[in-house]
Design goal:
single chain, 428 residues, alpha+beta, OB fold (Dihydrolipoamide Acetyltransferase, E2P), Rossmann fold, eight-stranded mixed sheet, seven-stranded antiparallel sheet, 25 strands, disordered N terminus, binds S-adenosylmethionine
Length: 428
């Protein structure tokens, strides 16, 4: 599709090079039009970037992965300066593209990269590279940590509609029935039909709603938790109600938490990846401030390297488990229920301390960054599962903190999501 460039196209300075910027379509039509063209590269979030003849940028979604260089047809909606849309047909396909190993890959909203097969990690690396180059500059060094094949989801959320179990459809609240999930640990995948059978047989509460299946230690143990937090343990003869916590044996430490609560999606791989990176960075010192600490994963991984540990987390149940987990690991810690943004005081810590922050997806509040810029600790570690929010926070912290190391971990295989970890030193 061709669009006419409007008169008045300007040239602006971007660094030293002059770049022609296409004019804005002020009364841009919102209607959908079709477009055919080449995917130039991948942007953060897995979107393919294309360009119209007049230089307008297009951001395109495809449910099963896009490879740079592929020629596609797409339905596009025009915004004032760019277009957004979704791929409807491939004109040419990259030879690396494979058939999705999941029968509901296209409809299900849980994964994004099935047709990239074993090349998915490389596509993700390219997306991350694009983001980091744009946000932090060409010169920023970083390390990439792809997931091993064994990294599967140890926690999945399913919906029961009264007749079947399934995932939400992509961009929708309607359901795709499933009876297995190749992205999940085998024990969980095999438990899906067992849960469905129990629900159909009215052995469990049949109320329409969400179910969580999770696994932990001993290996193969499966718990099912309903929306009200009631939990059943899967045994050979069926589901048995349980009040036992979920247990994860991760190397030398064991972490317990209540069912349905937050924990890493793939705990063994997360512990290995975080543990490896943080130990390589040789973090040690007086006090570790484990902020947004959950049930104590980072305190457990690093705690021995510090004389004291302070964990701050808003969930009271998680804090109670953190206290017990760290006590049991021989790492007694001060564990506090608080909102991190309210708790962090001006001038926190001394140079021998480390602040580690692992906030939810939205990242750090601006006021918290301002307070962290007054902290007296020598080191700060920032963990973030949304790369864009992570880069924004690095910039907000840039006044007082210098990024020394950056690692990107593929903790969420088959999806476009990654975990970023930055090591920052206090500026002189
Ligand atoms: C990404 S999780 C990290 C948990 C933990 N570090 C781990 O890896 O298991 C974020 C945690 O922050 C907690 N949280 C969310 N908002 C918070 C806030 N404003 N103050 C303190 N904790 C908060 C959540 O309950 C959750 O446990």
């Amino acid at each position: 599709m061709k669009r006419k460039a409007e008169a008045g196209s300007k040239k602006v300075m971007a660094g030293k090079a002059k770049v022609a910027v296409p004019p804005a379509y002020r009364n841009s039509p919102a209607k959908t039009e079709s477009w055919r063209g080449n995917i130039d590269r991948l942007a953060w979030g897995g979107k393919g970037l294309g360009r119209t003849e007049d230089g307008r940028l297009l951001l395109l979604e495809a449910p099963l992965a896009l490879f740079p260089g592929e020629v596609v047809e797409a339905e596009v909606q025009w915004k004032p300066r760019h277009g957004e849309g979704r791929v409807t047909r491939w004109v040419t396909k990259d030879p690396r593209r494979v058939e999705a190993a999941c029968p509901v890959a296209e409809a299900c909203g849980g994964c994004d990269l099935w047709e990239a097969g074993r090349h998915a990690p490389e596509l993700k690396r390219q997306m991350v590279a694009d983001l980091l180059r744009r946000q932090l500059g060409e010169a920023q060094a970083w390390t990439w940590h792809p997931a091993p094949d064994s990294a599967r989801r140890h926690r999945i959320q399913l919906h029961w509609n009264g007749a079947a179990l399934g995932y939400f459809r992509r961009n929708s609240h309607s359901m795709v029935p499933v009876n297995a999930c190749p992205a999940a640990a085998d024990s969980i995948s095999q438990a899906i039909p067992r849960l469905q059978e129990a629900l159909l047989g009215r052995m469990l509460s049949t109320r329409v709603g969400r179910w969580e299946l999770s696994t932990g230690s001993p290996e193969g143990t499966v718990w099912a938790t309903d929306e009200r937090g009631r939990t059943w343990l899967l045994e050979p003869d069926g589901w048995h109600q349980s009040t036992e916590p979920i247990r994860h044996r991760l190397g030398e430490v064991t972490l317990l938490h209540e069912s349905g609560a937050f924990f890493q999606v793939s705990p063994p791989w997360a512990a290995e990846a975080f543990g490896g990176v943080l130990k390589d960075w040789d973090l040690k010192g007086q006090t570790l401030y484990d902020l947004y600490g959950g049930v104590g994963l980072f305190s457990a991984l690093l705690g021995q390297r510090f004389q004291q540990r302070v964990l701050v987390e808003s969930g009271a149940a998680a804090v109670a488990w953190a206290r017990r987990n760290l006590e049991a690991a021989g790492l007694p810690s001060e564990c506090l229920v608080a909102d991190v943004a309210e708790w962090v005081p001006e001038g926190l810590g001394v140079p021998g301390d480390v602040i580690l922050l692992d906030p939810p997806r939205a990242g750090l509040e601006a006021t918290l960054c301002e307070r962290l810029n007054t902290a007296q600790t020598g080191t700060l570690v920032l963990v973030g599962c949304d790369g864009a929010a992570f880069c924004r926070d690095l910039k907000r912290l840039g006044e007082a903190w210098e990024l020394k190391q950056l690692a990107v971990l593929d903790l969420f295989p088959h999806t476009v999501h990654v975990e970023c970890v930055g090591l920052l030193s206090r500026r002189a």
